[in-house]
Amino acid sequence: MATQSTMYAIKATGSGYMKIVFSLKESAAGQWSVCRGSITLFSQLRLGPAIRLAREVARDEHLRSGRNVCVEMPGPTSAIELANYVHSPAAA
Fold first, then answer.
1. Residue 45 covered by a domain
2. Number of structural domains the chain divides into
3. What's this model's pTM, rounded to 2 decimal places?
4. 92 lies in a domain?
5. What are phi and psi of 23, to 5 degrees?
6. pLDDT in tens, 32-64
7. For range 66-90, the mean pLDDT
8. Distance between CA atoms of 81 and 25, rounded to whole angstroms?
9. CA–CA separation, 66 and 89 (whole Å)
10. For residue 5, what is the DSSP state?
11. What 8-state DSSP symbol labels residue 91?
12. In a domain, 2, yes or no
């Protein structure tokens, strides 16, 4: 059974920073995709490689842009955060 992913590529955080969200989406066939909003970046992956790739892409985006970035996957009742790369105010 296919599940839904986080629909927003960017969302507000409690600290006032905008967060870029990479999400994992499962297909009806049980394969996984790495997405940013409605855009599929990579598809037809097993879960382990999909998680590793999503974390790598998120880390690279954070290092490149300096913005808050996270990786989420669908859980039973809400999204499960797998990685969170946060802007450090001390580094600004």
1. yes
2. 1
3. 0.78
4. no
5. -130, 155
6. 999 999 999 999 999 999 999 999 999 999 999
7. 91
8. 13
9. 11
10. -
11. G
12. no
